[in-house]
Backbone:
């Protein structure tokens, strides 16, 4: 059947990624990517979301609606009502009923989660965290994201906001500011003594080229991220922490400092068990986790229907 597939969507502040997956969790075709254009009118972002979904289906040779849509979006989110609430990354879509939009425009039910939770779920089921009972996924990019997966399922908490640690205080700022790409920039500018109009990627190039100031900035950044990760690990005692996102691509510049700072916070038995890995799925982690979310919910609903519970 043409609709025997799950659509996974990763809705971020800068880009939208979408891919089709079969009912066993295998990706079909390439990942479609389009800019979010979050500063434009809401209709522009929504049009690109729809276009990305259609393109993903076309890449897989599919022309019908999906059986279900799983979506990871920047948070916070109102998961009960499937409403977007991120005033920083998606300011023009605050209060938007994304579930209703997907049902009407893509012809399938939506299963929504925080994008970091989808990253963690993708890595837990198909990536670096396979076989681990408690996986914490950390995304380092334009912000700081945290997702929690226990025994293969996303842990959302009582209000569906578990892992929303972006505004927790850290290093005179908060997790989002101190542990994002902007945190690298601020470290570098502080050490250099002036603003240089550089982004984290360029500072990474400088560090890899041997620039001492850039290398020191990355090490200081790693220690700061380690304080955040260590605190999270102290509370959750995970089997594994997986890091991903655009900034994590430079992990070789700061991973040692991150792990050292994290271990200083942990109790002795937890220090011995602490494991940190880089993302195995890379840019595909978000859409993979979103599809896994949709796939699980679809299968559960199908079983309930077969058992006469609906």
Residues:
């Amino acid at each position: 059947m043409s609709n025997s597939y799950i659509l996974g969507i990763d809705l971020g502040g800068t880009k939208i990624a979408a891919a089709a997956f079969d009912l066993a969790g295998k990706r079909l075709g390439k990942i479609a990517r389009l800019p979010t254009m979050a500063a434009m009118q809401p209709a522009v972002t929504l049009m690109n979301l729809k276009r990305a979904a259609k393109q993903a289906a076309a890449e897989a040779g599919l022309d019908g609606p999906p059986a279900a849509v799983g979506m990871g979006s920047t948070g916070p989110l109102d998961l009960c009502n499937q409403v977007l609430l991120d005033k920083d990354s998606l300011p023009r879509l605050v209060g938007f009923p994304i579930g209703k939009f997907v049902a009407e425009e893509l012809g399938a039910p939506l299963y929504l989660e925080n994008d970091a939770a989808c990253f963690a779920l993708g890595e837990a089921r198909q990536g670096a965290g396979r076989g681990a009972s408690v996986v914490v996924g950390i995304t380092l990019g334009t912000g700081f994201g945290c997702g929690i997966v226990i025994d293969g399922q996303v842990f959302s908490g009582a209000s569906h906001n578990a892992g929303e640690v972006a505004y927790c205080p850290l290093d005179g700022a908060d997790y989002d500011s101190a542990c994002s790409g902007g945190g690298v920039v601020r470290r570098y500018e502080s050490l250099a003594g002036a603003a240089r109009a550089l982004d984290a990627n360029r500072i990474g190039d400088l560090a890899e080229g041997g620039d001492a100031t850039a290398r020191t900035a990355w090490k200081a950044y790693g220690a700061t991220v380690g304080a955040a990760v260590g605190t999270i690990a102290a509370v959750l005692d995970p089997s594994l922490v997986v890091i991903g996102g655009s900034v994590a691509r430079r992990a070789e510049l700061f991973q040692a400092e991150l792990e050292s700072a994290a271990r200083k916070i942990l109790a002795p038995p937890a220090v011995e068990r602490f494991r940190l890995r880089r993302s195995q799925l890379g840019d595909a982690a978000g859409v993979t986790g979103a599809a896994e979310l949709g796939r699980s919910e679809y299968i559960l609903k199908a079983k309930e229907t077969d058992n006469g519970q609906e």
Summary: The CA atoms of residues 79 and 160 lie 7 Å apart. The chain is about 40% helix and 20% strand. The first helix runs from residue 42 to 59. The chain has a mean pLDDT of 93.
